[in-house]
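Schema walk-through. Below, the input block comes first and the output block second. Nothing else is stored per chain. Lengths vary across the set, and this one has 354 residues.
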Amino acid sequence: MSLDERKKRILQAIIDSYIDSAEPVGSRFIARRYDLGVSPATIRNEMSDLEELGYLEQPHTSAGRIPSDKGYRFYVDFLLEIHKLAAREVAHIDDWYQNRAREIDLQIQRTAKILSQMTNYTSLIMGPTLSEQELRYLQILPIGESTAVIVLVNETGIVEHRNVDLPDGIREEELNAIAEIMNERLRGKTLDDVKEALFRELHQELSLRLDRIHLAQQMLEQVFQIMDETVLDCQEERIYLGGATNILSQPEFKDIEKARLVLGLLEEEKTLRQVLTDLAPEGITIRIGHENTAVEMQNLSMVTARYEIGGKLVGTIGVLGPTRMDYGRVVSVMDRITRHLTNSLAGKKTRCEK
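--- output ---
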């Protein structure tokens, strides 16, 4: 049975009211609040039909109805009105991105914060896997007679920089030559691509072009050690949380058992990483209640979107809240913030946190 226009209007009114109040909605309330042109008795009959069809549920403690997961899905797919952000909210987001630091870790961390502030839910952002991004170049920068900084730069900016001890007697022109040879062979490869075979090839190339090969060998070993350590540090995407306690302020989670499940979920990075990976096609995706595979999330909804660096989809933004989420506002805020994050990360610097 498809829904006629009257049933659609009543379902939308019930869901809008429940989003606002978190209280079961009755026919008299709908008749008073919304000008639907029908009596409370007619609304009550329509609500009974919607319950039979699975769009509404009736808690045993109340005569009112609440939406089911099926009801929310119909609402999101066919009835949802995307909120228009107020001019001051648009300006707040725009100004925030124009005036913030440009390091990727900091950008993502602060994006999680502003997203949670503007939605009043919990935000989750999965950062990029740096070890899978292509290298641009390597630098060896002397900072004293016996010390240098080795800097690895990838397609998004700075990946890693560490101090190393220089081989005794090595000259700056030799360091520049080593960096040049390595850049010729490493450019366009990822940290994951840097293998033992490439180490041997570089050693052979250095022996053909440099006289003091033993010094070059020592530098090469130090550079590859840093690369190996960087791969270990950055092999998994980091999860950034914003407003982790926001979700607990929702009426649904006054139940201690429900709150415990949510808190446990937010502590499980592996589960969150899987959730954000599963829910990450292009565009904005909404998963409601039991549409989530994780047991801990079946009283929750998740709205996700992807962001890019250099034209590549590299990470996921998510908003986690009750199924009674204000979907229209969340989608509007996520759309603007995702576009800003993608633009602001283009060509900006990043590093793995220790």
